[in-house]
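Supplementary Text 2. Reproducibility record for the structural model of the 70-residue chain.

All settings were left at their defaults, and a single model was retained for analysis rather than an ensemble. We include the record here because the model underlies the residue-level annotations in Supplementary Table 4.
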Amino acid sequence: MSIQRINNLSNRIAANIQTRKLPLKSKQKGASGLEYAVLVAAIVVVLGTAVFAFGDQITTLFEGIDLTGG
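Retained model, structure tokens:
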């Protein structure tokens, strides 16, 4: 899946969540399991996109760290 398709999908999910309207007298007390699943999926998409886009730079950053203390 390309970065453009991932970004498009995440934008569509965000727009859907923002335009979703609940009834005025909602008896909903908290987030449902589905809402948590959507949140986790969005976080995974964002992290996956970041790692895909900046993976080489992250690798170079950690390779330059000297853990021996010398």
